[in-house]
Amino acid sequence: MENRVIVAGAGIWGCTLARILAEAGYRVEVLEKRPVIGGNVRCETDPETGIEVHVYGSHIFHTHIPEVWEFVNRFVRFNGYQHKVLARHGGKTYFLPLGLALINQFFGVELTPGEVAGFMAEESHRTAIFDAFFRNYTSKQWGKAPEEIDPSIIRRVPVRATYDVNYFNDYHQGIPESGYNSLFERLLAHENIEIKTNCAFELPPGGKLDCPVFYSGPIDALFGFKFGPLPWRTLRFETEKLDVADAQGTSVVNYVDSDVPYTRQHEYKHYHPELKAVMEFPKTIVCREYSTAWQPGDEPYYPVNNEESAALLAKYEALAGEIPNLTVGGRLGQYRYFDMDKSIEAALAAAKNFLEKNQ
Ligand SMILES: Cc1cc2nc3c(=O)[nH]c(=O)nc-3n(C[C@H](O)[C@H](O)[C@H](O)COP(=O)(O)OP(=O)(O)OC[C@H]3O[C@@H](n4cnc5c(N)ncnc54)[C@H](O)[C@@H]3O)c2cc1C
To answer: Is 170's C-beta closer than 6 angstroms to any atom of ligand 1?
Structure first.
């Protein structure tokens, strides 16, 4: 068996694969373009306050996939944080997602669970919710005029006939008690793994690979943007330290009105309610998130899925498919939004597939 493999990209997809292949006896070289591992789940702890700052936006681990939950729990313990998101509209604060709490507060009614479906079946009620909570937020997120946002999307938004304000439906949730970076450090702490940071993988001239390569960088970059770059939305984060122990009383508030230019404000200390000293420290860190147009060279965050980008992606995928020994995966490689659990699930599947074929 060819014993050496290269994993290019030390995000959650690459680190999961590296670990499984190392445990199966392969010598794994992890190449990471950035100076640090962790991909977009990377955090930095503020030395003064002890607050874990999510460098590329808030990340909450949530899953209903037993194998994924079991896998991550081999490396870190989760703190049981349950994610709630509030929405600021017209000077008032509401609980998302769309459920009894929001509907009753917004319309000033006292619906029972049995009355919700009938109430929301009314066109005028759906339109009012769409205009207040979805139209402007979606417009800011995707850089489109509010009139361009398709009102029919509200029909696809699930309505909860309960007061459950837990943002995710997943059974397992939390933040690693020891911080996200420790998850990546522990995933790669194996005698068969060698990590090379500041080291970008490039296809050798002629494209011939002398060992299996698992690549999770951008698929268009791998081929020198031969057919042009795939389009993305990017984000700008405005981070501020404030002289109060608690600025907004929760981790995330969505700003759904058009007069506020950012989409959300994060307050990171709320992700670790178990850290009493951090919670009570008389300072906090907030971060306002702006969604903006992407230019080549910017950090890619959300793929822009349309017919044009699908056609471009198909061309790059065809090129990748012609290269023996190459597996392309992850959010950048597949040009898809994946939550962390789905990235791990995909990496576990890719590793299993490879091992079955090669043992
Ligand atoms: C704003 C935002 C918020 C999110 N919040 C959540 C959340 O709350 N919960 C959740 O489950 N998921 C969340 N996600 C999704 C999560 O970020 C992804 O699931 C995860 O980052 C995917 O990991 P990855 O390994 O595919 O990609 P990445 O994390 O992007 O890792 C890819 C790595 O490859 C490196 N690389 C690129 N090119 C090369 C090269 N040529 N050679 C070597 N290395 C290279 C990059 O530097 C990077 O480190 C969020 C995503 C966004 C955009």
So the answer is: no
**16 and 150 both lie in a single domain:** no
Domain boundary among 136, 156, 176: 156
Task: Report the atom number in ligand 1 closest to the C-alpha of 331.
Answer: 26
> Over 80: is that where the pLDDT of 1 sits?
no
Q: Which atom of ligand 1 is nearest to the CA of 329?
A: 26
pLDDT of 2: 59
- Protein residue with least CA distance to atom 7, ligand 1: 59
Q: In what order do the strands lie in the sheet with 4-8?
A: 193-196, 27-31, 4-8, 213-215, 326-328
Tell me what the mean pLDDT of segment 41-47 comes to: 98
Residue 199 lies inside a defined structural domain of this protein: yes
* Residues 221 and 322 placed together within one structural domain of the fold: yes
CATH number for 347: 3.40.50.720
pLDDT tens per residue across span 47-85:
999 999 999 999 999 999 999 999 999 999 999 999 999
- Looking at 139, 156, 173, which one is the last position of a domain? 156
Between β-strands 213-215 and 193-196, what pairing exists: parallel, antiparallel or unpaired? unpaired
Active-site annotation holds for 88:
no
pLDDT confidence band for 10 (50 / 70 / 90): very high
CA of 34 to the centre of ligand 1 (A): 12
Catalytic status, residue 345: no
Q: Is 4 a catalytic residue?
A: no
Query: What rounded mean pLDDT belongs to the chain?
Result: 96
Ligand 1, from 29, 194, 216, 254: best to mutate by most atoms within 8 Å of Cβ? 216
> Does 338 fall in a domain?
yes
12 within some domain: yes
- Beta-bridge partner residues of 287: 239, 266
Q: Is 160 a catalytic residue?
A: yes
Statement: the pTM of the whole predicted model exceeds 0.85: yes
Tell whether 125 and 211 lie within a shared domain.
Answer: no
Write the CA distances from 177 to 44, 75, 272, integer angstroms: 14, 11, 8
> How far apart are alpha carbons 131 and 147 in whole angstroms?
10
Q: Is residue 197 part of a domain?
A: yes
**Cα 304 from chain centre:** 15
Q: For the segment 276-308, what is each residue's pLDDT rounded down to a tens digit?
A: 999 999 999 999 999 999 998 899 999 999 999
> Which residue range is the domain that position 144 belongs to?
97-156
- Can 77 be counted among the known catalytic residues? no
Instruction: Please check whether residue 338 is in contact with residue 14, taking contact to mean a CB–CB distance below 8 angstroms.
Output: no
Based on the structure, what is the number of domains in the chain? 2
